[in-house]
Amino acid sequence: MSQFIDRVTIHATAGNGGHGETSVRREKFKPLGGPDGGNGGHGGDVVIVADPDVTTLLDYHHRPHRNASNGEPGKGDLRHGKNGETLYLPVPVGTVIKDLDGNILHDLVVPHEEIILAHGGTGGAGNASLASPKRKAPGFSLLGIPGEERSVVLELKTVADIALVGFPSAGKSSLIAAISAARPKIADYPFTTLVPNLGVVDAGGIRFTVADVPGLIPGASEGKGLGLEFLRHVERTHALVHVLDAGTLESDRDPISDFEALEKELAAYAVEPILTEGGEQLIPLLDRPQLVAINKTDLPDGQAMADMTRAELESRGLRVFEISAVSRKGLNELKYAMAQLVTEARDQLADAVEAQQQQPATITIEPQHRRRGAKPHQFTLVKEERGLQPLFRIRGETPERWVAQTNFDNDEAVGYLADRLERLGIEKALFNAGALPGDAVVIGDDESGVVFDWEPTMTTGAEHLAGPRGQDVRFEERQRPTREEKRHDYAERKAARAATQAEMEEERRSGLWTDDETTND
Fold it and tell me: Are 235 and 107 in contact (CB under 8 A)?
């Protein structure tokens, strides 16, 4: 027996970005042919899609952890890593995405609508992409950024035009089986229906859906019975049909008292906003169109009970129908009345969509020209205190992303990060904030941030280079000497050798040199 799950918590992890490659092309007679490291691939996203063919969240109840694939690392010879595949999570239409605190993030009411739940990490750049006229041979590459991790609550709310509400065993399941092709479980005991049932009804060419909501009892809005679990499935509907039991055997119940008890529970239930094609709607359940169907009038006492209560219900401005789901008495009139309510609701929704489309779009006017040297504010700097010592915290998407991309085991990569942070204006901001050499500076939060002692005019990463940062003397082009230059160099070496020999001969004749064998004799 399959389970109906309409509320789950899932934990989604997007794919990590692949690391960039540090590589140098090597060819015959050209051992240092320049950088050729490829970029890492981007991590896969986690996407939730509203699938009309999916009816339950059962799959996520059994497997709440979902991970997208990682991007592949770059390789030499300018081979870029493959991007990770996007992970699609199909959910029923009408699923609401909430954070763990209960705040609505998105409402999937349109079939095939997609929303990116977790973004994949960006792949790191290879050293070939980091090369420039001033940095001809980067000896480093950038790391891939980890993918986002997100935990959300998926809550299913049935998308239907009409909702049947009533006490247990009032005949709601029999009614939906009589007017549609739905075949819910029907039995003569309370709470037979444990899951909402949907049926498609055709009345005069107008097709609409009807939801059979499990039975409500007094206190349902506070969690008693099954009402609180399934009252959320009433929120999507345009209208309500109260199915009242005219043949109940309980002495303290009658259609009037049942109707008033249902109205009380519907009024006490807090409706959440519904994001529809026409915009956000917040309509209390009692403010929606309502019909009353007095069921089981085929019973001997049922018709008498209907006759006694109909006038009271109609005096409250309600349209009342005497029906029998078994003998099909009054079902056609009830179906056409439902179709009329659905048609009116659809017309109002179409007008709301048209009015929303006619509203002028909001235009954000930005300066056409920005002052030379001016940059958008991409970070914040806050002075804190830790251990009676000043600490400067820098937050911002750009500097934190740069830190995550840096391999701190590579001095040149650290120097590249220092150059980027200086160009962003962080060093100037530290000066203006009163930072002194040696003060602690942290980029990011306490968990993943990087702490360092600030030194103005930082040159980290350049000490090990034979030339200016970003240059490598190994890749400097060397010109071959001409034939005339070779002859000139040869003549100079020959003249220097002749002069040395002449000097040595003169020293020998002057007696500065002696023969060891002659001295020993």
Answer: no
